Amino acid sequence: MALLVKEKIVKLALIGATGRTGTHVLAAALGRGHDVTALVRDPDKLDSRTRAAVRVVVGDATEPEALTDLLTGVDAVVSALGPTSKEGDLHTRTADALIAIMARTGPRRFVGVSGAGIDVPGDRKSAANKVISALIQLLGGAVVKDKPAEYAAWAASDLDWTLVRPPRLVDGPASTRPLEHDAHRSTRSTKITRADLGGFLIDVVERDLHPRQAPFVATPRA
Length: 222
Hints:
Elements: E1 11-15, H1 22-31, E2 35-40, H2 48-53, E3 55-58, H3 64-71, E4 76-79, H4 90-105, E5 109-113, H5 127-139, H6 141-156, E6 160-164, E7 168-170, E8 180-182, E9 191-193, H7 194-207, E10 216-218
Parallel strand pairs: 1-2, 1-4, 2-3, 4-5, 5-6, 7-9
Antiparallel strand pairs: 8-10
Helix pairs in contact: 1-7, 3-4, 4-6
Organism: Pengzhenrongella frigida
Pfam families: NAD_binding_10 (PF13460)
Protein name: NAD-dependent epimerase/dehydratase family protein
């Protein structure tokens, strides 16, 4: 696979741009000079300056027509979709729709957000994190079950995907120190700021980090 370094990334498709994490992804992408096409349900949630800086596609993340428009001519897809109790299988349905289009017409690179509570082959979680993951999977309901199904869909594809597994999301500024991240070893820190997560998603695309893996990532402890 060709390395997608920052200088070669020209066009990014962003899903979930108006969410609590998506706003940070969008800011990071624009701040680094990328050309962004954003899929949104309500364009009025973008301020006028942002709207002028991006190409906006109005639609749903599971709609083939909207996704085809979104993905036309882009180099990579970044999704910051968050969980929603109203659509317990949203991530799996989105993955299925994206995979079908990406396999047919491209692009091949996808970076999305999963959760630290899911298990993937090769994991080396700490004892405490194993217990936490088991509780999340037991008590989390449909939204939690959606995450392993989403992972299975991407893993079964031949695309170049990365599903980032953050721990507890919090508000706060981006860290000035390198983030903790590893493909299989759980992080020592148990939280990450949304600003750090947003920046990391763009790092993954720019530096081609963790292809076909589901890395853990966290804001380093103070």
